[in-house]
């Protein structure tokens, strides 16, 4: 029998409350479970002591028996110091591809060229004698 340590949802509509349960992997999410080993109330602030409550001894027992925690429960267990959870994000997944890197380089080159052109235009304006502004003619009627 494959045993999981997972969350079982309770509470009213838009007011979730979860039980941390040990259940057969084939049973429904909110269905039959073997044992309740904790609770999770996501509506409480993250630093509140009652947000996650765990029965550490029973969880250690079930982990020794071969129960596999789900990802969310593994996060709770890692925060409690019961189980070491490895990061699951792939750091290379968010990096830009070859074509995107080429486009970035092209944009940098264009920006540098525009800055150089603006600097040259400013230098040329300083060197050339300033043209006198035409005097305003006063029209008398």
From TrEMBL:
The keyword Ribosomal protein appears for this protein: yes
Annotated stretches, region: Disordered: 119-141
SUPFAM superfamilies: Ribosomal protein S16
Transmembrane segments: none
Alphabetized InterPro entries for the sequence: Ribosomal_bS16, Ribosomal_bS16_CS, Ribosomal_bS16_dom_sf
Cross-referenced PROSITE patterns: RIBOSOMAL_S16 (PS00732)
GO MF entries: structural constituent of ribosome
Gene3D superfamilies: 3.30.1320.10
Keyword field contains Ribosomal protein: yes
GO cellular component, one term: cytoplasm
GO BP, sorted A to Z: translation
Pfam families: Ribosomal_S16 (PF00886)
Record's keyword terms, sorted: Ribonucleoprotein, Ribosomal protein
HAMAP family given in the database record: Ribosomal_bS16
PANTHER family to which the protein is assigned, alphabetical: 30S RIBOSOMAL PROTEIN S16 (PTHR12919), SMALL RIBOSOMAL SUBUNIT PROTEIN BS16M (PTHR12919:SF20)
Family per record: Belongs to the bacterial ribosomal protein bS16 family.
Name of this protein: Small ribosomal subunit protein bS16
Species this chain originates from: Paremcibacter congregatus
């Amino acid at each position: 029998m494959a045993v999981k340590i997972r969350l079982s949802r309770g509470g009213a509509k838009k007011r979730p409350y979860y039980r941390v349960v040990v259940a057969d992997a084939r049973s429904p999410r909110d269905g039959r479970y073997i044992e309740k080993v904790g609770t999770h109330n996501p509506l409480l602030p993250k630093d509140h002591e009652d947000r996650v409550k765990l029965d550490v001894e029973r969880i250690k027992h079930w982990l020794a028996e071969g129960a596999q925690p789900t990802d969310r429960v593994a996060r709770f267990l890692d925060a409690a110091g019961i189980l070491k959870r490895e990061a699951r994000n792939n750091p290379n997944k968010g990096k830009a591809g070859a074509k995107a890197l080429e486009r970035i380089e092209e944009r940098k080159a264009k920006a540098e060229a525009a800055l150089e052109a603006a600097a040259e235009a400013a230098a040329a304006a300083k060197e050339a004698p300033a043209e006198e502004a035409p005097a305003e003619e006063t029209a008398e009627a």
